[in-house]
Design goal:
The complex is a heterodimer of chains A (250) and B (141). In chain A, 19% of the residues lie in helices and 44% in strands. Chain A contains five helices and 18 strands. In chain A, strands 1, 2, 3, 4, 5, 6, 8, 9, 15 and 18 form a ten-stranded mixed sheet that branches. Chain A has a six-stranded antiparallel sheet with strand order 14-13-10-7-16-17, covered by helices on one side. In chain A, helix 1 links the parallel strand 1 and strand 2. The longest helix of chain A has 14 residues. The radius of gyration of chain B is 24 Å and the shape is elongated. The chains are: A alpha+beta (250), B mainly beta (141). At the A-B interface, strand 9, strand 13 and strand 14 of A face strand 1 and strand 2 of B.
Chain lengths: 250, 141
């Protein structure tokens, strides 16, 4: 049985046309199911955890990358299959899954190619599919218990990627599924009357430990969480059952 | 060394930027580019590139290496070692082959080529020993 979660922003009237097309296509393919529309008062976590225990095997997220990331955090431990119908033109995850439009996504759901994907895990509490971001000025980083990374100066941003994108368009991606986390450090050097100079560092590791004196604000795919240190970030291998298209990059 | 792949992206696993200092045993199986500082040891089964502003206080082991910065420690490169004019090495160097630009500095012992094939020694043990007493007696007769 399929369980469709519609994001809050799809309640706007401009998305009605797209939703009508999606629903009629799903009915034609014979894969329609229960629909839950999220709202300000309806919490995603509460909805999913209640419904998933009632025999649902496939959860389909209808919305954008943020909705998918929030859902992914809840699903892996329950061993369900997750599908995605992007109702946005800027979905990077949809591109790497091989479903650039919602029409393609409906057909992909019916063909049901399931791939097991690695997920990133923070402190055995949160999962992340693509990346997380944090300010890096007061952090101590230890990789694989072998070497220590000391970030010098200010204006540093640290990214930890399971799947990282080489450019903003999302057309090329550094793939996951190798059991390694990609750590990126972006340093911006600002000088008076001169353009800012950016330098990058990149590491690969199986496990990253981050410590700090203060609590760390983390951005997990546009969703902000404040986590108390120390952080242990590692890969949960083959954790997510994802329905992907033929033209997938992963 | 550090050739671009078909999509035009360099296949480099690790980049240590100028704002970063790494301490400890840094072991990887991919290409490394160093623009910052490293203390400890570096081991890679592939290529290593050390930028002109970088400083390495470590024993280095790599397949091939292109060095433009300062290395304080022993270098063990099984393939080709390339030193540019800004390279400074304070330590012993062991390499398969080398290319040194004018201005590069090496302070330490230097060994090149396969260590198994040492210089040829004459094999005296296989030659017949000459008895000098017998030869003198024969001469007197």
């Amino acid at each position: 049985m399929y369980y469709y979660i519609y994001d809050n922003y799809l309640n706007e009237s401009k998305h009605k046309g797209a939703l009508f097309k999606i629903e009629s296509r799903l009915t034609d393919l014979g894969i329609n199911g229960k629909i839950v529309r999220l709202s300000v008062l309806k919490n995603l976590q509460k909805n999913i955890s209640e419904e998933l225990n009632s025999g649902i095997k496939t959860v389909v997220v209808v919305g954008d990358d943020k909705t998918l990331s929030q859902s992914i955090n809840l699903i892996p431990d329950l061993n369900k299959v997750i599908g995605y119908i992007p109702v946005t033109n800027n979905s990077k995850i949809a591109k790497i899954m091989g479903i650039p439009s919602y029409e393609d996504a409906c057909n992909t759901l019916s063909t049901r190619i399931i791939k097991k994907i690695d997920l990133g895990r923070i402190n055995d509490l949160y999962y992340f599919f693509t990346c997380l971001e944090m300010p890096g000025d007061t952090l101590n980083i230890v990789c694989d218990d072998n070497y220590f990374i000391n970030v010098e100066g200010k204006n540093n941003i640290i990214t930890v990627n399971n799947i990282s994108f080489d450019d903003d368009s999302g057309n090329s991606a550094v793939l996951g599924n190798d059991g390694l986390i990609k750590l990126g450090i972006k340093h911006t050097e600002k000088k008076w009357f001169k353009p800012a100079k950016e330098t990058f560092s990149r590491f690969k590791a199986k496990k990253i430990n981050i410590t700090s004196d203060k609590s760390i604000p983390i951005l997990i795919t546009d969703e902000k969480r404040i986590v108390k240190p120390p952080l242990e970030i590692k890969i949960a291998e083959k954790k997510l059952n994802l329905i992907v298209g033929k033209n997938r990059i992963i | 060394m550090f050739k671009e792949n078909q999509s035009g992206v360099q296949e480099t696993d690790t980049i240590i930027g100028p704002s970063v200092k790494v301490e400890g045993d840094f072991v990887t199986e991919g290409n490394i580019i160093v623009e910052g500082t490293i203390c400890g040891t570096i081991k890679t089964s592939q290529n290593l590139k050390v930028g002109p502003e970088s400083k390495i206080f470590a024993n280095v082991s790599a397949e091939n290496a292109l060095i433009s910065g300062e290395v304080q420690g022993n270098l063990n490169v099984s393939g080709k070692l390339e030193l540019t004019s800004t390279a400074k090495i304070f330590g012993d160097v062991k390499t398969g082959s080398i290319s040194i630009a004018s201005g590069a500095v090496i302070n330490g012992k230097y060994q090149m080529g396969d260590t198994k094939n040492k210089a040829i020694k004459p094999e005296f043990s296989k030659q017949k020993k000459i008895d000098l007493k017998q030869t003198t007696e024969k001469d007197e007769e």
